[in-house]
Fold DHS-like NAD/FAD-binding domain-containing protein.
Amino acid sequence: MSSKSGYPQDKPVNILEGRDLKALAKYIKSESCKNVFLMVIRLLTTSAGIPDFRSPETGLYANLARLNLPYPEAVFQIDFFRRNPIPFYTLAKELYPGRYRPTITHSFIKLLHSHSLLHTCFTQNIDTLERRAGVPGNKIIEAHGSFATQRCIDCQKPYDDEKIKQAVMKSEIPRCEHCEGLVKPDIVFFGEALPRKFHLSIPSLRHADLLIVMGTSLTVHPFASLVTLVPQDCPRVLINLDDVGHFNRRSDIVYLRKCDEVVRELCQELGWEEELDKEWKATENTVEGGVETSDNRPAEEADDEVAKITRAVEESLSVSEPKSGGLDDASPQRSDEGNSDEITPQPGSPKESESAISSSSQDGKL
C-alpha cells in the first residue's frame, strides 16, 4: 500500500540475505535489482586529490577565511562575482576539469552503467569526474551544477567549452560574445536556485531498488534529504568514513571505510574486479598536466594543494577589488550551518523530506 504522495508506507521487509558485501553482491546480480541510484559527495573528490571545501581547519573555506574577502564563501556568491570575478576564476584555474584523475569509485559507477544497472547518479561535486570516468551525462544529476557547461550571467547565452578553458588557463575573465556580460560555469552559487533538472529527477527515487551513498556528511540540504525518498523496502548502503544520517532500516548496510577499498571488495564479490581495473586504467589519459592521486595520498599533500590554491586567490585579491563597499560583510544564509532545522527531514517521512526539498529550492550551495 502506498501513501497519497506515492511513496510506500513503512513495512518490515528485509530484501538482503545479510549485511555483508557477499549478500549485497548477490542482490545486485539478482532480478530484483534493476534500478541502482547513487549519491556521491565530497570524499570521492578528496580521494582524487581535489581539496575539500568544508573541513573546519583544512578545507578551502577555512583557508580562504584569512583573506581579504567579505566572507570565505564570497568566492561563490553571485553578487560578489558580479563585482569581482577574479578570485573565483583564480580558484577555477586550480580546480578545472583535467587536473585530476577519477578514482576507482568513479570507475565503479561507470561499471554499474555498463551492466545496465545505473539509473541515476546524484552528485554534489562540481568537478565532472563522473563524466571523465565515462558515465553518460544523462545518467548524472549534478545537484550543484558543474564545470561541464557555462553561460553568460546576463543574457544566459551558452559559451563555448574550449574558449572558456583557454580563458581560465590564461588567467583571463571570459566575456559573453553577445552582450559582454560575465561568463560563469554552470556551478550553483549562493543566491542561485538549484538546477531544474535536479528537482525534476526527485520523483524517480520512488523506483529505486538500491541506493548507495558514498563519502558524505549528509548535512547539506536539500541534497541530504534524498536518502529518505526511496521506498522503505529499498536497501540503502552507506560507504563513508563517519557514521552519518539515519541508516537504521532493516535492509540498510553501513561500511565505515574508504570508498575505494569497499568498492574493490564489492567488485571482487560481483566478479567485476578485472573490469574495474580496466575501466580505471582507461582514465589514465584524462589528466592534462594536473594531479594524479589516489585514496592513499598523504594528508600533507592535500594540505599543500589547499595552501597553493589559497595563495593564488590571495594574490588575485591583491590586484583586484578591496573588501570594502557594495557587499554586506555578513555571510550568506546557508541551510547547513545554523538554519537547517526547517528542512531537516524526520527519518522515514517522505512527505516531510519532499517538503524540505521544495522549501530549499532557492538555496544554492557548494
Strands lie at 36-40, 118-123, 140-142, 145-152, 183-187, 210-214, 236-239, 253-255.
